[in-house]
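Preliminary data (for renewal application), MTE complex.
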Amino acid sequence: MSDETTRRGFLRAGIAGGAALTAGAAAAAGVPDPLITEVQPWASEFGDPVDAVPYGMPIRFESHVVRRNVDWLTESPVSSINFTPIHALEGTITPQGCAFERHHSGAIELSKTDYRLMINGLVDRPLVFTWADLERFPRTVMTAFCECAANGGMEWGGAQLEGCQFTQGMIHNMEYTGIPLRLLLQEAGVKPEGKWIYVEGADASSNGRSIPLDKAMDDVLVAMFANGEALRKEHGYPVRLVVPGWEGNMWVKWLRRVGVYHTAVESREETSKYTDLMADGTARKWTWVMDAKSVITAPSPQNPVRHGPGPLVITGLAWSGHGRIARVDVSTDGGMNWRTARLSGDVKPKALTRFHLDIDWDGQEMLLMSRAIDETGYVQPTKDQLRAIRGLNNVYHNNAIQTWWLKSDGEVENVEVV
Ligand code: MTE
Ligand code: CO
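Predicted structure:
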């Protein structure tokens, strides 16, 4: 409420001052603006016919909104990762076309005709489903974020990469339609000794992971659609697992088998990988849930401020694998003072939440930070708080507060406050 009042206050001030929020230099200089006074080609000629583009891509002016790699990060592009351009997106839904990809052995092409899903192990009836079989099961719709456990992994030792696309961009948030895994497991009939499932993909890596049966019976989804359309090849077409709130590695793509077992399999992906190496050399395992986290997406290094002092929109994303985001605080002075941001739109559990804070920028440098608090009361830690517990050997589960240094010329740099 108070933010609203302030905003209206300085909007009025801006209009009275004649410049702050009016369009363009021409208007300010009092010369006619040809975009207003002259008939433009787009107003005097035909545009494209309706059938010019049967399936559309973003307009060419948005061609910078694309996935990007960090060259030195991995040796081979088939076992690699790219990053979502979160600095250039708004709202909460990530379009599939620019949602980060992580493949251990490349993205495979698997048709619906060739698709099979097996449920075996400790079940009454081992089953194999075709795509056509799956289409006849009751479906549900759910929005969820998928965050790679390694998101932010390059920032443990210090501020390194210039842009939230690289520091926090191993995340996407889609609206999935699919079958609750519970229904398929019930169809097979889980034996009382069955306490874990082991899920694997049809790609060469198989990316096998163990999941406790409780989670599998709770909110795990066998997803067939994302953002209203078929899954894209790179996100697991035709079927992937959605494991809400849990690390991205468990979201098996091209899902081919769900085995039911009395214990965890302890596969490569959950022993030598995706465990958290602590300072004393031991490793934490079964760190499945992604703790609360947030980042300011604008202003940010790839999204500097291109206007002078006055109204400035600060915006970002917050999420928690434990449920809903309860509050997001924003600091402009490196964490000394905090203001509560607005949570814009729906706040869904285990999904990205958009926040906005509208400030009156005095044109001075700022140290911008955001801090997420989830419905369990958990508060996103500072980098130092996290390092005190987890040391510096680690790659995974960096959910520390990010600091952006906004300079008076509007440029932004990735820094740490010590
Ligand atoms: N599933 C299979 N079959 N193969 C894989 O390489 N990568 C995992 C997971 N599921 C992977 C997989 C990892 S580490 C992550 S973070 C997510 O998929 C990434 O999903 P995305 O490529 O849709 O972003
Ligand atoms: Co991952």
